[in-house]
Amino acid sequence: MLHYLEQAMSDAPKQRAPELEFANVSRRSFLTIAATGFAVAAFTTQAGAFARYKTGGDFMPHGIRYDPKIFVSIDADGTVTIVAHRAEMGTGSRTSLPMVLADEMGADWSRVNIVQAEGDEPKYGNQDTDGSRSMRHHIQSMRQMGASVRHMLVQAAAKKWGVDAGSVTVGVHEISSGGRKAGFGDLAADAMALDVPAFEDLTFLTEDQFRYIGKGNISITDLHDITTGKAVYGADVSLPGMKFAAIARPPAVGSKPIRYDATATFKVPGVEKVLGLQISNFPAKFAPLGGIAVIASNTDAAIKGRDALEIEWAEGPHSGYNSKAFTEEMRATAKKPGAVLRAEGDAKAAFDGAAKVFARDYSQAHMAHAMMEPPVAVANVANGKAEIWAPVQSPFGTRGDLAGALNMPIEDVTVNVTLLGGGFGRKSKCDFAIEAAQLSQRIGAPVKVQWTREDDIRHSFYHTTSVERIEVALDADNKVTGWRHNSVAPSILSTFAPDSGHQFFIESGMGHIDMPFDIPNISVENGAAMAHTRIGWFRSVSNIPRAWAVQSFVAELASEMGRDHKDLLMEMIGPDRLLDPPKQGFPENFWDYGEVYDEYPIDTARLKNVLAIAADKAGWGRDLPAGEGLGLAVHRSFVTYVATAARVKIIDGKITVPEMHMAVDCGFAANPERIRSQMEGAAVMGMTTAMHSGITYENGAVTQSNFHDYPMIRSDNYPQKVHTHVVPHGFEVHAAGVGEPGVPPVPPAIANAVFAATGKRLRDLPFGDTV
Amino acid sequence: MATVRINGQSRTIDGPDDTTLLWAIRDMAGLTGTKYGCGAGLCGACTVHVDGKAVRSCLSTVGEVAGKDVTTIEGLSADGNHPVQVAWREYNVPQCGFCQAGQIMQAAAILQEKPDLTDDEILEGMSGNICRCGCYERIVAAVRHVSTGS
Ligand code: FES
Ligand code: FES
After folding, report:
1. Under CATH, which number does the domain B83-148 receive?
2. Residue A680 and residue B140: Cβ atoms within 8 Å?
3. Whether B89 and A90 lie within 8 Å, measured CB to CB
4. Which terminus, N or C, of chain A has the lesser number of Cβ atoms within 10 Å?
5. What is the ipTM of this complex?
6. Counting Cβ atoms within 10 Å, is residue A653 exposed (0-12), middle (13-18) or buried (19+)?
7. B6-45 pLDDT tens trace
8. Smallest Cβ distance to A680: which of B36, B89, B137?
């Protein structure tokens, strides 16, 4: 995400040019290959086993590394150690990527150790763990490195035994030739001393040879440690002489303390120091908000001391922010024409000549991520060096920001990545690590900064708030001839640079411009809305409000027309085809999740397929008892296709969800077990988003503070049975990620089901848990 | 200054009696398996056992548990193979894992109290524990498995 913000902030068109150029080149070469019927067989000695393809990983900062000597080591006892270079926040990437490598090299998973990489992108390649990119961008390099090590082991065995490499076979964790046999450990030193083979010299496993890839038969590597309390998260790091800090941050961004009284604070046993911190206002990227820090000998004292501070805050630049009024302003803006981002056909003529116009608007409140582990970091800045331990999604980005904040060369900053107790985009922003490092630098001792839940909910980088207005033009036969979708929401860009209130290209690429319906006249528009709090990305980002609007709207339209929702949705998606962005009025800078479009085109057949699966499995069309209803929604995000069919049951006015079907097409499914867990989790987070996640503001301050007023779905009312249907594909259908795509279709599917059950239409997120 | 028995070991807590049990366990006893999630009894991440009963350590003080037996996730079983822990692994429950020590301690306590829980009792008994990653279906399945064998 950050990478694109940096692009957007600088001279955007110039920055993006290489990518666009590449897109065109690739389109041509793709067509050539398709026309002549070749797979990219020249790259592999086993046709079809592994045809390399281009991903957006190459355009990410520091790209992708293919050197097994960086990622793999083998001990003499045969223990294989594999580096996990992406952050683990619950998706399973710390397991799934090494699993791919291990399978391809022939390793026995029970003899594999995983070590977490420190933040070092020049060494490991891109480590920015967001955008559902880990599997999408790194499955190929993992396979290649695994095949490389296998090849090197074979060469080492052949040399040692004086036999032809062709006679050497690789079993599980062992190598043999004729009657000779050796374990990986026996050959490790010789093998790892060899040069790394070129891709063209490698052989790859065929899919029927996979033992782990695509099987879902291994557990996450941290499972035992998690269930025994040994797993290490941010707050679990302890250093000798470490001090503990809690910080009172401004209620509204940018407000300054006029005066404060720390008398009560110093009465708390264990409190040692009270320090003022510089106040910042956005745009300031990830600069800490500032405030007043309490330093103590333990966390309890730091928090109690902080809570005992009496602070009078001045009015700040955003003290006038009242979110309720702001939503109404956005609603008014959405009714006016916005800046046109996509123009296909002649929308104006379609609306002018319409027999009928149908319009609705949908809103969403801000959201805080509320990952179970609030922000926390440990820092030790001493002797001109800084070392940080923190649950961060982008360790190298954090390292750069720390170097800047501490005024140190990046070489003198080390960032160690702990497990993340949830991330959801919040831990892409390293303000909490900067706080710890700056405090450590100031007091000359190691410091742990612990955010309380209240801090987390009141001082986040919030999911934006929005109003989405959709209008369609209908002709006399009730055919949709025109589509206008005006999206109004403060942009993430506002956190990074002075902005115009308009969305930037990646936000517009998430379910807005890329609307897949087969409608002749389309106008995709964006009205301005200025940010009054720090806006950041939240799992699934703009896809949440866009899917909410589009998928609710089609259901409303169906009911208006007296048509079956699924039939109308299928009809609007239209015939099987790949959308052709230039022909369909997409702008030049259309963002397909950073991918080369032709490698991951918008495929309506795949979209309809997941919709059909979810609907069929849920028994769409069947009669349900009174008070129950089925609802559907489908959305492509992060180049993965997900459809949700939700069944709701209203019990004494309370919305319950006894069953949900999630149909997911993420291309080749590398680890179906973790794909299922992500879909189950998305069902829950989608339900929380639908019913509960509303951050509101009064006079610039967040109204909510903890789980009593910012509630989460719990076991007393959760999607009780989530059936995940993974569309099977061979490796040739590029693997994509599943961390984010599961969430967007869930809220509209639930709302559509509530409508089916009760006739009540919900248009504003969150809509509560009662009807 | 209170003496608290944690996982069978007596520990003197270097702090006042109103020191929050959670932070005494984490910062002073150095047992970090017990997590902070809300500090207000709303999430269950900090769940420990006091004399065998599930307690939110963020709402307890060391003074209140003086002379009592506190068990944390580290002490739930000597070998880490309490039936609840085993079931958690069998069902691949965790995603990020952060809530899971609290979930496991809560599950172990309610199962201890009543080994054959009905589904409603499981849902009710676990409803104080939030999992933001959304592992509820597997949590419930794992508890049901320990409870009924199915
Ligand atoms: S931390 Fe104790 S209940 Fe949340
Ligand atoms: S597994 Fe992440 S909060 Fe429960």
Report:
1. 1.10.150.120
2. no
3. no
4. C
5. 0.99
6. exposed
7. 999 999 998 999 999 999 999 999 999 999 999 999 999 9
8. B137
